[in-house]
């Protein structure tokens, strides 16, 4: 390789389960992999990562620390830093950070995850990740036999309410002062399943220390629930995929079976590329990206 060749085979943008799992496997293929991480993972507000096979209920920071140590022991490099921009093209990318560093790489893996949109309700932030959740698959199993509330208006909120009956003893749907946006059939389906729809405005969520005590409504009795679920959407944690010109669907980059985006040499993995939004799925897609990136770097002289 010439002296002007990039220092890194791959720069990984984001050090969550996706980016760190990719880095581990890239290092196993003896690829020079640098992970740059801003340190604000999607699940930082919660106390445990449920359902990660073999690692029951680890704290999110503990899971990341273990993944990081394993990747670094294999030979990957990890640095704190927030990527500002990715320029260039396959074999000659330049990755710039807000701190002023630049790194040259042959491939780039985008693994910077999503940010959740939270309901604009007083008290919600304190409860988020402790007793207010966006993901029924992650936290539904923690509310077996408990009363829960769902925040939202449309069919998606109604579907979430019905889905939670897998675990909850009772579900109430809170439309927060707006008329319910459900049709008669949907309302009837909720009624058949004893899901009450409360249309009063939500005054505040009372959750001392993050533990939901009650949800106060205006001019109506409180809602007694042990957990609140919502899904108002999520967006990429930064706009790098958009700036690179990656084809996107609903804001998220579209990838092929090898996790490559529409921009050659730019791969993407983890929550950023779509469901299921689980740590183990993010890790798996990171590994899939690593294998594909390695193969894309094998020279023609070593192929038959
Ligand atoms: C409240 C809550 C509870 C959850 N509970 C569970 C659970 O119990 N079980 C489960 O399996 N999943 C759970 N999840 C989902 C899980 O957190 C995600 O699926 C997983 O974190 C996705 O991993 P990722 O690597 O794609 O992204 P993330 O873990 O979000 O990591 C992305 C990383 O990229 C960094 N980054 C962002 N922008 C940049 C940039 N420009 N430059 C450098 N770095 C950048 C971020 O700071 C972050 O560190 C939960 C999520 C939430 C919000």
Structural class comes to alpha/beta
Low-confidence stretches: none
| Tally of helical runs | 8
Rounded mean pLDDT is 96
The bound ligands are: flavin-adenine dinucleotide
Total strands: 19
**Count of separate structural domains:** 2
Computed CA radius of gyration, to the nearest angstrom: 22 Å
Shape summary: elongated
H/E element string? EHEHEEEEEHEHEHEHEEEEEEHEEEH
Report the β-strand fraction as a percent range.
Answer: 25-35%
CATH superfamily of the largest domain: FAD/NAD(P)-binding domain
Looking at CATH, which topology of the largest domain would you report?
A: FAD/NAD(P)-binding domain
Largest sheet: 7 strands, mixed
End-to-end separation = 21 Å
- The CATH architecture assignment of the largest domain turns out to be 3-Layer(bba) Sandwich
Helix content: 25-40%
Top CATH class of the largest domain: Alpha Beta
Overview in brief:
The chain is built from eight helices and 19 strands. It has 304 residues and is α/β, with parallel strands linked by helices.
